[in-house]
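Hey L., structure's done. Input below.
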Amino acid sequence: MTKTRKSEFRPNDFVVYPAHGVGKIVSIEEREIAGMTLELFVISFEKDKMTLRVPTDKATAVGMRGLSSPDIVSKALATLKGKARVKRAMWSRRAQEYEQKINSGDLLAIAEVVRDLHRTDDQREQSYSERQLYEAALERLTREVAAVSGIDEAGAAKQVDDVLVARAA
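Output:
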């Protein structure tokens, strides 16, 4: 039985997997699992030295998506310029919300986390958990900006940093 429905994702495409950020499809393979043949995307997350196999028919259901459009990247960078919105909720609840935004794979939500947790040198110290969430969000944002813009991560990091520094000034 051959599947006629062709997937929107192909080998060498960059994709965003919600829980892990930007990865690259290295191949599409078939594996027999419990007597059934499954077609799987093999996605490499080089930075994390991790490979993920996602059934092709479940890819969109788990939230895997193509890279954001340059337009969305511009909106995300514009989001960084906004004023930080910090709710007066307990940290544990805010941390949970930040975590959900980061793992949503939604670039604009990730940019909001970066904006809200960004600290300039003269602001109060960040707690360890704030720093962890900030760095996770920043890394996701930076990797996608790099992949969409076709620049290296260092260049994307500088681009993001320039926006954050300009906002603080």
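Strands lie at 14-17, 21-33, 36-45, 50-55, 65-66. Residues 1-5 have pLDDT under 50 and may be disordered.

-- N.
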